[in-house]
UniProtKB/TrEMBL annotation:
Principal subcellular localisation of the protein: cytoplasm
Keyword NAD: yes
Any one Gene Ontology cellular component term annotated for this protein: cytosol
A single GO BP: carbohydrate metabolic process
Catalytic activity: sn-glycerol 3-phosphate + NAD(+) = dihydroxyacetone phosphate + NADH + H(+)
Residue span(s) of domain Glycerol-3-phosphate dehydrogenase NAD-dependent C-terminal: 225-371
Protein name as annotated: Glycerol-3-phosphate dehydrogenase [NAD(+)]
UniProt organism field: Myodes glareolus (Bank vole)
InterPro entries per UniProt: 6-PGluconate_DH-like_C_sf, 6PGD_dom2, G3P_DH_NAD-dep, G3P_DH_NAD-dep_C, G3P_DH_NAD-dep_euk, G3P_DH_NAD-dep_N, NAD(P)-bd_dom_sf
Length: 381
């Protein structure tokens, strides 16, 4: 489905508004249909930040309906339902405390009610819940809707790699773009300047999502190499775990830089081996690539928990509970998916960094084994 089809029943209000837009990254859509209804599926740390951006942007654009629905996995916080707190206090006190959400962001605990009339669906749940969510909404989402996945993670299918966007496409039967970048939620919420990348197989759809999400402090570039954008978002979390392990036994910045470089090489090689479509090196130079890798290896929860794992000897599960207050860790899960995909193809020795991170997280291999793994990396042979 193209956004031009979505916008077919134009009411022409936008034309008279005469908005100036950049020619290169302009969707070219000046004519507006019924305002497009947006639903955010998920309300964790990142989903809440994105609701802040979208809620504020739609107020100024007639192309989008003024109310933004946000599906909230209901839980009770200090004796009150989280949806009630969000709708009356306009703050997600559990996942984004200290930031006011716009009043036009309306939280709902019913997934089916949230998505039933949506034109644009922004998927922002942790990736372990995406299959269940898609099963529940598959017959409810309008077939003309467009999706945008913010979910960083991958899955395994019969042919090897399965992207989260593939799962949404297959189950919900809509076009899906992705948004990935060097975007640590707390920093974006504080309106610190950053960039992000939208990958879209249908450029026009990516440009529509750019209009929905771009702000002066959150700059969006759209590329068509969508699978690579998505893969970068997932794989960098494995590298960030590797850097966290190094921090745990007090490696210096030079060693960390080595992990980042070798990690990037493995990300590119993994993309070239497993992506069905073209994998452009240029995509790794977008915000979704090097920038997200660097920000996750210095900030971010995967690095932080991996460091604590190396220092304390507690399990990943214990640390996730202790340190993240309900937030989910993506790196260990993604490393397990990647490990299975590589093992099936007999390629573990070509990806020693990904492999050692998996073995440290899941098989009790010593954290100090990171160093011999780097020393014997095929890059140096
Ligand atoms: N936080 C960031 O800085 C950031 C930045 C960019 C992208 N992302 C990506 O966004 C996605 C969402 O991450 P997040 O940080 O917003 O989430 P989070 O880890 O902060 O929150 C966990 C969410 O999972 C929900 N949940 C718990 N149990 C559930 C269940 N059984 N079914 C459905 N939902 C359940 C919780 O209600 C909560 O909304 C991830 O893929 C992440 O990689 C995060």
């Amino acid at each position: 489905m193209l956004c031009s089809d979505l916008l077919a029943q134009a009411d022409r209000r936008q034309q008279s508004a005469g908005k100036a837009q950049s020619p290169r990254q302009d969707s070219g859509v000046e004519v507006v249909a019924k305002p497009l209804k947006v639903c955010i599926v998920g309300s964790g740390n990142w989903g809440s930040v994105v609701s802040k951006i979208i809620g504020s942007n739609v107020k100024n654009m007639k192309k989008f309906a003024p109310t933004v629905k946000m599906w909230v996995f209901e839980e009770v916080v200090s004796g009150r339902k989280l949806t009630d707190i969000i709708n009356s206090d306009h703050e997600n006190v559990k996942y984004l405390p200290g930031h006011r959400l716009p009043e036009n962001v309306v939280a709902t605990p019913s997934l089916s009610q949230a998505v039933q009339d949506a034109d644009l669906l922004v998927f922002a749940s942790p990736h372990q819940f995406v299959r269940t969510i898609c099963d529940e909404i598959a017959d409810i989402v309008p077939k003309t809707a467009l999706g945008l996945s913010l979910i960083k993670g991958i899955d395994e299918g019969p042919e090897g790699l399965k992207l989260v966007s593939d799962i949404i496409r297959e189950k919900v039967d809509i076009d899906v773009s992705v948004l990935m970048g060097a975007n640590i939620a707390s920093e974006v919420a504080a309106e610190q300047f950053c960039e992000t990348t939208i990958g879209s197989k249908v450029l026009q759809n990516g440009l529509l999502f750019k209009e929905l999400l771009q702000t002066p402090k959150f700059r969006v570039t759209v590329v068509e190499d969508s699978d690579t954008v998505e893969l970068c978002g997932a794989l960098k979390n494995i590298v960030a775990m590797g850097v966290g392990f190094c921090d745990g036994f007090c490696c210096g910045d030079s060693t960390k830089a080595t992990v980042i470089r070798l990690g990037l090489k493995e990300m590119i090689a993994f993309g070239r081996t497993f992506c069905k479509g073209q994998v452009s090196t240029a995509t790794f130079l977008e915000s979704c690539g090097v920038a997200d890798l660097v920000s996750s290896c210095y900030g971010g929860r995967n690095r932080k928990v991996a460091e604590a794992f190396a220092r304390t000897g507690k399990t990943i599960e214990e640390l996730e509970k202790e340190m993240l207050n309900g937030q989910k860790l993506q790196g260990p899960h993604t490393s397990a998916q990647v490990y299975r995909i590589l093992r099936k193809k007999g390629l573990l020795d070509k990806f020693p960094l990904f492999t050692v991170v998996y073995q440290i997280c899941h098989e009790g291999r010593a954290v100090a084994e990171m160093i011999p793994c780097l020393q014997n990396h095929p890059e140096h042979r």
